[in-house]
Specification:
This protein has a single domain, classed as Rossmann fold, CATH 3.40.50.720. Helix 5 links the parallel strand 5 and strand 6. Helices cover 42% and strands 16% of the residues. The structure holds NADPH dihydro-nicotinamide-adenine-dinucleotide phosphate and 2-hydroxyethylsulfonic acid. The site of NADPH dihydro-nicotinamide-adenine-dinucleotide phosphate has 32 residues, from helix 1, helix 4 and helix 6.
């Protein structure tokens, strides 16, 4: 089991949830100290082996060195969770900033392509193998300030659908899990560490947790081998659509 972006949020929760199922884990992200914490939590949950290695999905060299390392740890990989990603900024197109666009598209779209291309030779060609991509409601519904992120996640959806066609006959299942608002470090990253602005995203509503999404990822991976869950949209009850979030007044 190989998970990108396992140093926090959904990736870290997925590592722990797969660990509880007894999975052996190969975990990547840029923050190795945080990866170590994830690995420790996964081992405590029941993983017999949780190993970490630095990974920057925006760099072809880093992806190649991560996959070389993975090849040294295991003969084959049964599940690849392409989770690394996130949004950078919330500016309109008119006020957009190249580094934010490049980071957003570079991680969520090019990172997904790079990781998949590099890991494919290691993926088992028998029943039960899976590529599970983490998309977003943003790939299905646009919102103001979301151009690069919505485009990247719409791209993720189409890459998933393309892979499903290209890998037909290999036994490898391919699917996407597309969450709505989940309270992780996502908004902190989007707003460049502005804690108050990040907190307001979830104010008055009950968002998904990283664990809610991780549970869905584990469920997809653990279906009978002839069953492929192609696409899941998983939203908080309080979020009926990207623009329609029910928020309670304080104290309600
Ligand atoms: P977090 O910010 O908590 O986690 C993002 C993870 O991605 C971190 O482990 C981070 O690790 C990793 N990451 C970011 N950039 C890179 C990179 N260049 N190379 C390798 N790893 C990277 O947010 P979430 O857990 O919420 O995000 C996980 C996924 O879920 C993302 O794809 C996000 O778009 C998606 N998502 C999130 C939603 C939400 O509301 N939270 C909703 C829908 C989808 P590090 O910084 O250490 O490299
Ligand atoms: C994260 C959810 O609505 O902030 O993908 O884009 S949203």
């Amino acid at each position: 089991m190989l998970i990108s972006g396992a140093s926090s949020g959904i990736g870290a929760a997925a590592a722990q949830a797969f660990g509880a199922e007894g999975a052996k884990l190969l975990l990547g992200a840029r923050r190795v100290d945080r990866l170590d914490q994830t690995a420790e939590a996964a081992r405590r949950a029941g993983s017999p082996c949780a190993l970490v290695h630095p990974l920057d999905v925006t760099s072809t060299t880093s992806v190649a060195s991560f996959v070389d390392w993975a090849r040294g740890q295991t003969e084959s990989v049964d599940v690849l969770v392409n989770n690394a990603g996130g949004a950078h900024g919330l500016s309109s197109v008119a006020e957009g900033w190249d580094p934010d666009w490049e980071a957003t598209i570079g991680t969520n779209l090019f990172g997904l392509l790079r990781m998949t291309r590099a890991v494919l030779p290691l993926l088992r060609r028998d029943a039960g193998a899976a590529i599970i991509n983490v998309g977003s409601i943003a790939g299905r519904q646009a919102y103001e300030g979301g151009a690069a992120y919505c485009a990247a996640k719409a791209g993720e959806l189409q890459v998933t659908r393309t892979l499903r066609l290209e890998l037909s006959g290999t036994g490898i299942r391919v699917g996407t899990i597309d969450p709505g608002l989940a309270e992780t470090e996502f908004s902190l990253v989007r707003f460049k560490g502005d804690v108050e602005r990040a907190r307001k995203v979830y104010e008055g509503m009950r968002p998904l947790t990283a664990e809610d999404v991780a549970e869905a990822i584990v469920w997809v991976a653990s279906r009978p081998h002839h069953v492929c869950i192609d696409e899941i949209l998983i939203l908080p009850v309080d979020q009926a659509a990207v623009h329609k979030t029910h928020r309670r007044a304080q104290g309600d």
